[in-house]
Amino acid sequence: MSDPIKVVLVGKPNSGKSLLFNRLTGLHQKVANYPGVTVDVTSGAWGSYELVDFPGSYSMKPISAEEELAVLQFKTLLEAGHIHCVVCVLDATLLERSLTFGLQVAEEVGRYGYPIVFVLNMYDEIESNRLSIDVSGLSEEMGIPCLPISAKTGKGLSDLTKVVAARPMFVKLKSSMTAAELTQKFGFKANVFLKRMNHIDNIFLSSFLGAIFFLAIMFLIFQSIFTWALPLMDGTDAVIVWLGEVVGGWISEGFIHDFFQDAIIGGLGTFIVFVPQIFILTFIIGLLEDSGYLSRVAIICHRPLKFFGLSGKSFIPFLSGHACAIPAIYATRMIESKRVRFATMLTIPLISCSARLPIYSLFVVALIPRGDKLLGIFSLQGFAFFALYIFGYFVALLMSAIISRLASKNKFSNTPFIVELPAYRVPVVRPLLMRAFKSSWNFLSEAGPIIFVTSVVVWFLGYFPNGHGQLESSWLATMGHWLEPVLRPLGVDWRFGVAILTSFVAREVFVSTLGTLNGIGGAEENVGGLAHALNAGGLTLASGVALLLFYSIALQCVSTLATIKRETKSNWIPTALFVSYTLLAYILSIAAFAALSH
Description:
alpha/beta, Rossmann fold, 9 strands
């Protein structure tokens, strides 16, 4: 069976290309990765054609590594043939900017003699502002069919279908006019869209009001990923537990029952529970991006972050990292510069995430009496939490500066910080939901199996040789005893070694494991009881601070490592990151213990 004839869809970011693609293909979509490149290309059935949607690019002469790959992939497909037509999406409200890119595409397509169609998207906004574009004159001047459409309302899509079916011939541009000259001759004279955008930017980018709106919006994002996702995560966890109880009830007590209940169901729970956070974060970032505000955030944050080898676009992944490193790592996809994205991604694990919170709570409660005050006013426990979070940022920024300077200039070339400010628009929900679903599925299908296998391995080590409820005499405990000489410089025994090993699956397991080994049931809800038991067992201030430092730096999360492996497509990078952060955490912990013990 021969491959379907392709219609290629290209356009700049924020031109409405993805919305048009979703309109034309519905749910009949798939993500491909063409040979030789690493850029995801979405394709879908559009009638008898295969509509191929390339990632947005600002120019056919790219400056970023991601754009370069997208353009290379587009040129490779042009050389391969079997193309029925190229559809170039232009933003009608920013005609000159769009035509600059469109003329470059037309020149490239003309080399191969393929037909091309320009669609002037968002034409509904032109009409609602009582403006007009001489579309027929523009088309005649260039020798390229131009169609006014609205991907939001669906207007003009039937005309697009007819024009593509007719396959108008095009060899080369008839006109030598520039984008600016074409816009001046055929476009609207008064650029009301830029004027309106400037009025709004006077607020959002101002020193005072802009800062207030920025903090409010960032607080909203933080709440959404840290608080609003919690009911969905709890619901997901409850469904998994219920499924385990139902199916487990059909299996008689013994190894098979324990394996299914704890290894299979428990292993699934360690990564499926993250899906709501990934979904919500992807959706909200999409809202900010499509509304036009995300570009403004990058400008606000760029100057302070540039000093550490980052860019303004690193801010939202860092902020998201407080909830969970996994969706935060996915959020780095918005960063065009490969060097900056690399530095941002590899330092996100240093941001204090929600999984560290139970560990922080345990040691803060154990080391600092509840009523102690700082300067007689502020809670000393609250200050300790604040200090831990600030310390995470400090180390992350320091490591970002080091990584960005050590990264190979050939492999991770930097790009200038260039942000095109799109017009403010009301986002369309459907494509954002589809993007969020796709991001969640990518995590489940690619990172999930690695996390699941690791969880099952840890379960086996904790189960054998004596079975359920015998963690103290398990192979995992034996490994804890092996680790005891390594942990002795921190002033702790083998029980902490076992807890550290189990926390590779999920950091918060550290608390429940210590609770089990100290005879404290429900340690997650009874942190005070476990803290009292640790104090009674001889936990010192020096040991507690050493462990806090260790957990604030060490990469004790197989889920994060699996996600980094997926995003970097490398086994070496997550391995090197795990080793380096663990060694750094261990060295600083030993230094802290030694300093506080004297």
